[in-house]
Amino acid sequence: MRRRPALLLLPMLALAGCMTAAPPARRQPTIVFFNADSAALDSNAATLVAEAAERAKANPTLPVRVRGFTAPEGSAGYNRSLSEARARNVADVLVAAGVNRIRIVVEPRGPVPFESIPTESRRVEIVLGD
């Protein structure tokens, strides 16, 4: 008797049709670092923001969150203003690169404790999606 391999595939095809796709992996933020007491982007930071802009333009339905942070030194008001200035500068560069401003949410976070090294607190995180 001759085997029919096609018949063996039918149950597997039926099961495959019932499977759902895995959810997309959580997107890692693009992290842009700043010098102390500065909201200016250096050339490395500008390159990172440009790359983030390209990813944002390739995914036009996703929001873009721009979160600004500062180191804990100084007054809370100064640090809040600095974290907002950093985030707004990054948002402005994203817009200049072609990302629709309406998609961008600026979130100044203010001072955060030092992590492994002090410069990690002086940053902006660009998050594509929620």
UniProtKB/TrEMBL annotation:
| Signal sequence residues | 1-21
Localization, UniProt = Cell outer membrane
Q: List the Pfam families hit by this protein, alphabetically.
A: OmpA
Q: For this UniProt record, give its keywords in alphabetical order, as a comma-separated list.
A: Cell outer membrane, Membrane, Signal
In what residue span(s) does the OmpA-like domain sit?
A: 21-130
Q: Which domain of life is it from?
A: Bacteria
Under the heading PANTHER family, the entry gives:
LIPOPROTEIN YIAD-RELATED, STATOR ELEMENT OF FLAGELLAR MOTOR COMPLEX
Stated name of the protein:
OmpA family protein
Source organism (scientific name): Belnapia mucosa
Classification lineage: Bacteria, Pseudomonadati, Pseudomonadota, Alphaproteobacteria, Acetobacterales
